[in-house]
Amino acid sequence: MTFPTPSPFEEIGAERLREVIDVFVDRIFDDLMIGFFFRNADRGRIKELEFQFTARALGADIEYEGRPLEQAHASHPIMGGQFARRLQILKETLDEHNVPQAVREAWLDHTESLRSLITRDRGDDCDPAEARRKALGPSPS
């Protein structure tokens, strides 16, 4: 993706981006609806990977050292409603930190474009039976 000068990353800066991501990651880890996905995750590692991934998406020349998103999320039965919850927490965090509009739009647009890599659900559908099926795998024959 090509950005005008300054890029969204240049507009927000590395230090401020890290501050926003620190708060955002703390909120998703502590959230009642989606926090359980992170119960075995290293918070500091997730913050660093989230910073790398987001900085790169916003135009920084920073390498993302994590696994491809589809692979990293494959073992989690993430439903559309849970994806929407994470997106809502991100929106609230960006608003509370007065992130510049161009940065906010680029960040949210990029996040939304990843939906199909994270969940197979459309929109904000959340089907508990489907989540259970995904979590338990195919039934024995």
Describe, in plain words, how this protein is organized in 3D.
The structure is a single chain. With 141 residues, the protein is mostly helical. It has 8 helices and no strands. The chain has helices at 8-12, 14-30, 43-57, 69-73, 80-96, 101-113, 115-118, 128-136. It is globular, with a radius of gyration of 16 Å. The relative contact order is 0.16. The mean pLDDT is 84.
List the helices and strands and how they pair.
Layout: H1 8-12, H2 14-30, H3 43-57, H4 69-73, H5 80-96, H6 101-113, H7 115-118, H8 128-136
Helix pairs in contact: 2-3, 2-5, 5-6
Biggest sheet overview: none
Rounded mean pLDDT score: 84
- How large, in whole angstroms, is the Cα Rg? 16 Å
Number of helices: 8
Task: Kindly state the number of beta strands.
Answer: 0
Structural class: mainly alpha
Return residue spans where pLDDT drops below 50 for at least 5 consecutive residues.
Answer: none
Gross morphology is: globular
Distance between the termini: 47 Å
Strand content: under 5%
Helix content: 55-70%
| Helix and strand sequence | HHHHHHHH
